[in-house]
Amino acid sequence: MPEPASAARERILETASRLFYERGIRAVGVDTIVAEANVAKTTLYQHFKTKDDLIAAYLQASDENLRAWFSTLLDGGDDSPEERLLAVFRQMGDWVARAGFRGCGFINASMELADRAHPGSVVAAGHKDHVLDAFAALARQAGVDDAERLARELLVLLDGAFAGSAMQGTTAPFETAERAAALLLRARGL
To answer: Which of 108, 114, 100 is nearest to 128 (CA)?
Structure first.
């Protein structure tokens, strides 16, 4: 009996996501994805017209997961907005401590996909815009007058922590970024 189309699509996407993150987008060919997902090449192309569409789907799925996480953080219960802003760095530091961490998938994709109009680049940029908006929303909740500026500063710290952690193989950059974020908040009277 043939496998349902949705199950094959999910297996292809899960396999591609793992391989793209572990090895890099350009290093992984369609033949490798097909072999590891145990599907025919025609099945892959039934679900994703091009490799670029598969790349965009991989980043979109990651984006949806991280947006859900940010949403729970924004709704942070009893924690103050300041505590939630700092929690981003702490919780991301915990996340990067897992085995196999290779940096921020969105930054990695942006570096590999030189064309800003590439579907994957568009998704990666949209993700960073969402993070920026989430930081700005928390900053506004905390009563910061220049919430957008603070959000941009925090995003630079976050992206720098991702890059540093990937290069150094340690979570120390997230600890440093959290301390720097706390200083930025204190400078604004929080």
So the answer is: 108
Q: What is the per-residue pLDDT across 95-127, written as a single tens digit (0 to 9) for each?
A: 888 878 899 999 999 999 989 999 999 999 999
pTM (2 d.p.): 0.89
CA distance 97 to 100: 9
Q: What is the pLDDT of residues 70-86, one digit of tens each?
A: 888 777 778 888 898 89
Q: How many CA atoms lie within 13 A of 96 on its CB side?
A: 27
Q: How far apart are CA 49 and CA 157, in angstroms?
A: 37
Cα separation, 187 vs 189, whole angstroms: 5
Angstrom distance (rounded) from CA 161 to CA 117: 26
| Cβ-Cβ contacts under 8 Å for 82 (sequence gap 6 or more) | 142, 185, 190
Return the H-helix or E-strand segment holding 164. Answer: helix 147-168
Q: Which of 86, 96, 190, 89 is nearest to 143 (CA)?
A: 190
pLDDT exceeds 70 at position 1: no
Mean pLDDT for the stretch of residues 8-37: 96
- Is residue 91 a contact partner of residue 149, using CB atoms and an 8 Å limit? no
